[in-house]
């Protein structure tokens, strides 16, 4: 929470630190691109990315059977399309490149621009947008469908599938069938602490907030913390409702 | 920090949860013993343990190439000798059992009792006491030599060595040469939060404490947090002094 050298340099220093720590990971300075230098070029590379501040996503999932590269922006700000394009070029070996994008407007804008450019260069880029969040807006009860924790399941499942030899077509098909079946709901024990800024919402030591977002977006309900079981019940009930639990069970 | 069902049940619930989550790990209820049910009986099992509240130590290091079993007591209280003895029996397959003990009086008492009993039963038990901590007592500058974070290096190095076929004699020799060469120094950004109790020391949001212990023991110096580099300099300088850095370098 307070363990850094200077606020502006957090993401760049973190990425350089990861490069130093792990021989198999290489960081391209000033680009936000971290890639697996042992990546098997016979398989289809999967990449993902987004703002930093969500660690271990996405850099923590670069490795064998997961992402071939991650591209990271400043704190809570998506990477620029030019860096996403660089990442696509970096991992491309002619078998196509698969991109996992979290469903946020700013992310979609940058990733779509990069994908368009890469396709213009003749790279076969496919993508999936993760939108696993079933939290609702507290004012109008609209579902938010943000791409949040479930994105990591896509990294792992698609990454393992690619490692086993899945083609770009097969990976795209699997992604399209998987993504709508992933549902998550977040709960916060504390608000997000952004260095030198006030938190985006206030939560007492004995309170929890359901349905919060990964950038400190407030949830749909604040409650006194009773016990972890109460929280599990709320989360599981909401997830069950979403997937029509009873109906599926009786099949 | 506050995510639990009831304070008394935290360790037991945690261990049952780990059993549910990982097919290869089995928890023996009411004993604090978690073991690797895929453990290769042709190799020498290594076990460790201590109070709970230090997770991921020790239960997080049960697995292939690490510990065959961990035995856990209540929060910050070492396991009873009878449960340590049960753990030794559980993993014993006739090749000897190696035990890693953290250097705390209460831990040594329970582990030594269990080892004595196990030897009476004819089990060839060897052990090492980890004492990596180079923090000093702020009042008399005596070294504390507690067994802390460096214990994990013993789990990993000895575990990997055992997996490769090291005998109980060889493991003991390696442990005896390794343990005195491991030095660590802790720094805290926050005090330990014990459920429903006051913290053992107070640390402001912008302060850090050097040389703290793993049970909330105060460190030897509190400083305003400047940046992470300042902390790294303090830690590295102290470690260098301990190992007589210059002299070794010039060899």
What keyword list fits this structure?
homodimer; 251 residues; alpha/beta; Rossmann fold; Hypothetical Protein Tm841, Chain: A,domain 3; 2 domains; 6-stranded mixed β-sheet; globular; DhaK_dom (chains A, B); DhaK domain-containing protein (chains A, B)
Can you walk me through this structure?
Chains A, B: One of its GO terms (molecular function) is glycerone kinase activity. Chains A, B: This is DhaK domain-containing protein. Chains A, B: InterPro entries: DhaK_dom, Dihydroxyacetone_Kinase. The structure is a homodimer of 251-residue chains. Chain A has 251 residues and is α/β, with parallel strands linked by helices. Chain A has two domains: 12-181, 3-Layer(aba) Sandwich (Rossmann fold); 187-243, Hypothetical Protein Tm841, Chain: A,domain 3 (2-Layer Sandwich). Helix content of chain A is 33%, strand content 18%. In chain A, strands 1-2-4-3-5-6 form a six-stranded mixed β-sheet, sandwiched between helices. A three-stranded antiparallel β-sheet of chain A has the order 7-8-9, with no helix packed on it. The N and C termini of chain A lie far apart (47 Å). The model of chain A has no long low-confidence stretch (mean pLDDT 92). The interface between A and B is medium-sized, with 14 and 14 residues.
């Amino acid at each position: 929470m307070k363990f850094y050298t200077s606020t502006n340099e957090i993401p760049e220093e973190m990425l350089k630190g990861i490069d130093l720590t792990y021989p198999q990971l290489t960081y391209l300075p000033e680009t936000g691109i971290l890639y697996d230098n042992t990546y098997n070029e016979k398989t289809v590379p999967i990449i993902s990315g987004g703002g930093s501040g969500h660690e271990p996503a996405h850099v923590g999932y670069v490795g064998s059977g997961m992402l071939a590269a991650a591209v990271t922006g400043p704190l809570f700000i998506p990477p620029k399309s030019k860096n996403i394009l660089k990442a696509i070029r970096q991992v491309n070996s002619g078998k196509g490149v698969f991109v996992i994008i979290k469903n946020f407007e700013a992310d979609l804008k940058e990733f779509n621009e990069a994908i368009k450019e890469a396709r213009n260069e003749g790279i076969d880029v496919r993508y999936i947008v993760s939108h696993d969040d079933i939290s609702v807006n507290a004012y109008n009860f609209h579902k938010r469908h943000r791409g949040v924790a479930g994105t990591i399941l896509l990294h792992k499942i698609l990454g393992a599938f690619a490692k086993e030899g899945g083609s770009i077509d097969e990976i795209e098909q699997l992604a399209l069938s998987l993504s709508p079946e992933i549902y998550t709901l977040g709960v916060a024990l504390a608000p997000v602490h952004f260095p030198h800024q006030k938190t985006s919402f206030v939560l007492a030591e004995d309170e929890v907030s359901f349905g919060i977002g990964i950038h400190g977006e407030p949830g749909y309900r604040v409650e006194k913390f009773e016990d972890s079981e109460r929280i599990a019940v709320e989360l599981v009930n909401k997830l069950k409702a979403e997937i029509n639990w009873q109906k599926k069970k009786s099949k």
